[in-house]
Amino acid sequence: MCSGGCAKCLGITLIPLAVLCLLANILLFFPGGKVADKNENISDEVWYFGGIVGSGVLMIFPALVFLGLKNNDCCGCCGNESCGKRFAMFTSIIFAAIGFVGAGYSFIVSAVAINKGPKCDIGGGPFIYPFNSGDYLGNTTLWNVCKGPGDIVTWNLTLFCLLLIMSGVQAVLCAIQAINGLIGTICGDCKCCGCCGGDGPV
């Protein structure tokens, strides 16, 4: 497959992942599926916007760049018909790095949130973090200490696990595009400018 075609496939995959990460992070602002009485009742890690900024907004730009690489005009650059395409593939490496950093940020925030557990009401007082690092993950009976809101432990754990998985996939896809972009920069993007049966750029 041409490097531009590969980049387009990666871009098509990254966009729905970015949208899902945005939605997951937004849902975390409603602990247990309920509107929080106070901002302090929302887990701190939600406010780090890992899914909104890291795996969301920062991922949209690389995805759009990857989508456009397939149709990038590669002709007439400094007398070298493949120069434009090579430069575009080089640029995609930079955007892939941006996407990788964003996904990595979201991955780290999600991992910390999963290990730490959610803020919850343990009865009558302010919302606190009732769990020690990761001790609740293997012992679901500890979840009963949280009286609310809703099924807060399952809610936070599910959404942060989704963010962790999706941001991990995004990071892998961006790493693949970085390698793909490097290959496209060095070798060019298949045939272009009237080749491939005379149908124009590939």
Helix-strand layout with pairing:
Layout (H helix, E strand, L loop, with lengths): L2 H25 L22 H20 L13 H34 L35 H36 L15
Helix pairs in contact: 1-2, 1-4, 2-3, 2-4, 3-4
Subcellular location: Membrane
Family: Belongs to the L6 tetraspanin family.
Keywords: Membrane, Transmembrane, Transmembrane helix
Walk me through this protein's architecture:
By secondary structure, the chain is an all-alpha fold. The chain has one domain (3-187). The chain is 57% helix and 0% strand. The chain is built from 4 helices and no strands. It has helices spanning 3-27, 50-69, 83-116, 152-187. Helix 2 runs parallel beside helix 4 (152-187) and helix 3 (83-116) runs antiparallel to helix 4. The radius of gyration is 22 Å and the shape is elongated. The model is unreliable at 73-79 and 192-202 (pLDDT under 50). Keywords: Membrane, Transmembrane, Transmembrane helix.
Radius of gyration: 22 Å
How many separate structural domains? 1
Helical residues, percent: 55-70%
Spans with pLDDT under 50 lasting ≥5 residues? 73-79, 192-202
Distance between the termini: 10 Å
Class based on secondary structure composition and strand pairing: mainly alpha
Number of strands: 0
Mean pLDDT: 85
Overall shape: it is elongated
State which percent range the strand residues make up: under 5%
Order of helices and strands: HHHH
Number of H/I helices: 4
Largest sheet: none
